[in-house]
Amino acid sequence: MALSASQKASVSQIASLVVANAMVFQELLSEHKKEVETLNKTLLSANPQSAFLSQWQSILTLDYVPIFQAALNVLAAMPANPDLDRALRNLAERALQIISHRAALRHDVMGRIYHTLLREREAKGLATYYTSVPAATMLLKLALEPARWSHVDWSDEKDISKIRVADLACGTGTLLMAAAEAIVDNYSAASAWSGTTPALDKLHRILVEQVLWGYDVLTSATHLTASTLASRAPKVDFNEMNIWTLPLGGHDNRLGSIEYFENKKVQLPLDPMHAASTRVTPKGRVSYSRASLPKLDLCVMNPPFARSSQAGLLFGSVPDSERKGMQLRLSKLLRQHKVEANSTAGLGAVFVALGDRYIKPGGRIALVLPKALLAGIAWTRTRKLLTRNYVVEAMAVSHDPSRWNFSENTKLSEVLLIARKLTDTATVDDGAYQVLCVNLWRNPVNSWEALGVARSAMLGLNSGSVPDIDIGQGGYSIQAGGAKMGEAMKMRWSELGQQHNWLLPCAYAQNVLARVTRTLLTGEVRLPGELDSVNIPLVALGKIATLGPAARDVNDAFSLEVSPTPYAAFWGHPAHKVKTMSQTPNMHLAPLAAPKHERTMVRPLRDANLIWSRAGRIQLSARTRLNSKALTAIRLDQDALSDVWWPVKLGTPKAKRISTEKRLTNQEKALTLWFNSTLGMLLLLCFREDTEGAWIQFKKPSLEACPVLDITTLKHQVIDQLAEVYDSLCHKSLSPFPGMGSDPVRAELDSKLGEVIGLPDMKTLRECLAREPFICLRPMVS
User: What does the DSSP assignment read for 733-767?
Assistant: First the structure.
């Protein structure tokens, strides 16, 4: 496979990083091993290439094969010339600068550089997102909180040696490094409490040789994982590291860690020179033909996000000739082993199911995943897997508009989730298990802030200070360094796990909005500061209406036309034009005579009449950017189809259609009014699928489950009054959502809706919603 100029540049940069990393470690070793030269001494040679090759060959006879073998192979492949000499001297100077800042080594500076280099290459090809150091620190401190591991004597090295922690997509080892740091902290604290002297070098050897296991398909990544772990104590010798480079692609269509669905030992290529055959071990690789995976106490992962719907991403780093075979083998493997994962969600769902196969009863899984895990339809099977086999102990999301993510090379909204696997005899009793829900107002920017967040959250939880979403009040303030970092609350797992989605306790930065929405889901309107509540009739949208076809179905039956046809369409959602609830179709559709060329091999020609039968006058948002849009729903003067709106037609196959056109029209107006009210938005936003901050989607199954005002049970005169309110407002422009707190039209909408159905003033609630970062893109704290 020929490489482009940019790909060649990336390969050269990563190769340089591997060499520079070996230089850094050589300098560290020289401080503890007299056989190892300092970098300055090696650079005295007239031929730096030869000098480094000789020095690294010498180091290999002692130890540290995982770190120096890859660098030696890179350097040996380079042609000797003056340019190479200058490059090596320049790399050595940079290595010495890094070493002069020892704190940087503890924060995996080489991994940070590696992640940056991969943004344009492996990150897109493998959809691999590397966890930031603060996020890894926060996740592992919460996952390894000593109070949750009461069966482990943290002061006893032998007890710790029995723990098995694995990352099945380890990358440069950030999560494994954070696990090591958390275990060392637990050990040091327990030793101090028991009055014993901690043997940190001994513990480090135990961690490297027995506790920590890492797997990846990139040799350069496992090289950095090995050096990251070893750099914690370079003077310690060890016999082996359980870091494996697994095969990907090839004539057997290998699938990396996913191979562990087949067997707990993965067959490696017999060729010792093949990168995939390398088990990273300081004592060599000659006898290892299988990579084993033990039963785990903790599986921690930030797995690849590649989705099956994006063929260019799934296994995107392998040649096109291999990709199809790998996809077919993946599908077959998922069927044969009855893997509870929807590959439409991506490989991340597959990795969660894989981790489940190897986690011991009572063990834990700690994940960095897209926030869509909490509400995405494609993640439903993963949520069911976790609901059946686990108790979710904690989840954290970022409401920081500068960083919705916990991975370095993405801007996608993400979630940190920790769950404990049930034992064979365990049952989830009502109220027995509580989920700690952390809503970060400011995403930690360094390890100290991350430690502060984790400690504050666990202190609040263990002391009983974190309030329950149902029976508590207020929100527990998460603090770090005297600054507020967010809010936390609890929710019973027996309640959350049975919900259509898990977004509610993490839907809003402000706990007050989650509490209001929690009661609203039951049909009770209870506003902050109010002693009384009001009941309103709610019903799942899917029970009173039918949602129309998705954009791809429309595109498989029609072509878009400017000239008039019998088939109307409302295409797009231009924020500068769509400001009023009443709209008219802006395009037309023409039935296709044959499938579009690019779709012929993917989907057949759709029946235009069938697709058109699902057109509707109400158009409900399918995907939108909340910071610029003003409406969640509009109403047209005729039926239409759309690309970014869901057509909504009142009535369902099981429900009787409205008897008169006027009655139908008034109910449509009432429902459109509801969707654009503050209460309607609060409910709707709890059924969203987050992509990136303000950029969200509403999937059809989620909308069908979303509670709405039950217009079928309201009295005729009430519906007529709501229709009159709609008529009085439908041509007035609403401000974009960030301005809803001061928008007089939206205030009038809420006020008149409230007058008709008996609701209190929504001003405070509307102002709170306008302050939400995912709506206004402004931080909750400065």
Answer: PPPPGGGGGG-HHHHHHHHHHHHHHT----HHHHH
